[in-house]
């Protein structure tokens, strides 16, 4: 289905032409008519499937821009995703009078309050900052007609379950709720029953490959002492447009980025310990291709859309299946070709076997392919040699 086949406002159609959008992604095609018909939605879809636009388009379509009131609320787990959502909604609303704004922690609240007083139709927020505003300002949710919870499983994993419950309890009037999640843990099932009214489930993972089909998955078994030199050789010989290199701790971010800076130009690093202004600046430079290599913790592995990423490299083996899914999903998004390379040690082989089975990976091996049938589960698998991080005891520095 194409965008011009949908009954959208002329201003939105003009924006899509300006952005060069013609065809809907599968989740957009399935959800847009339902959302515009006022249905509650439970959307289960792989990373990179177009969930952000699937939310942004109908939300902008349903706003009455003749009223200067808050009419849509979008909740997301991280500051980076909030800013990305604001950007996407603003692109869709470019030729309309619909105004979108993002509020999140780590930033001065005063400018955010001033912007809200000027009038905002669509508010994108992280749960903590929104609750601060509900308690300490005169922010009203009484005209909110549409609520979106995106990356819901990540919000709950980050400890926002009580915050989400409180926010939803403030919406006592009739409204539409759209909940998007990559996975369906029990807490999401509970939340779904509590806040969705006769929802339509859109599921694009069951019976399909859970990873983007345009993404190639490579693994390489390397001793941790030889891993850095192997990485240097790989980056020197592989045609890399842009790459994100994931590690499991802030210390490793500093260590690896320092080593890369001695061999390559255009290297930056990012983790949850950086000030929000610096993090946003790095993300913006990376999106505009001013940075070629970005070393990151999982703070860059969830929901963020980087158009030009050709390679994702798991320098440290991911903590779990979800981490692998979201890290590697930074490449191969929206049908674009991408490569994911994961370094593997002896203790990771059983986890690789699980990844192949559960994600239905068509995995390829660089170098000698180990016999995964003999791999055994390791207790408290240790990542990255002597300076690694235990899976079972993930420290705060991991973000």
Strand content: 15-25%
Strand count, sense and barrel status of the largest sheet are:
7 strands, parallel
Alpha-beta content class: alpha/beta
Order of helices and strands: HHEHEHEHEHEHHEHEEHEHEHEEHEHE
SSE arrangement:
Blueprint: H1 10-19, H2 26-36, E1 41-44, H3 51-62, E2 72-75, H4 79-92, E3 100-103, H5 109-118, E4 122-125, H6 127-136, E5 146-149, H7 152-157, H8 161-169, E6 176-181, H9 186-195, E7 200-203, E8 215-221, H10 227-237, E9 243-246, H11 250-261, E10 267-270, H12 276-287, E11 293-296, E12 311-314, H13 321-328, E13 338-344, H14 349-359, E14 364-365
Parallel strand pairs: 1-6, 1-7, 2-4, 2-5, 3-4, 5-6, 8-13, 8-14, 9-11, 9-12, 10-11, 12-13
Helix pairs in contact: 2-3, 3-4, 6-8
Give a verbal description of the structure.
The chain is 37% helix and 16% strand. The C terminus is likely disordered. The protein is built from 14 helices and 14 strands. The protein is globular and about 65 Å long. α2 packs parallel to α3, α3 crosses α4 and α6 crosses α8. The strands form two sheets. Strands 3-4-2-5-6-1-7 form a seven-stranded parallel sheet, with helices on both faces. A seven-stranded parallel sheet has the order 10-11-9-12-13-8-14, sandwiched between helices. With 399 residues, the chain is of the alpha/beta class. β12, α13 and β13 form a beta-alpha-beta unit.
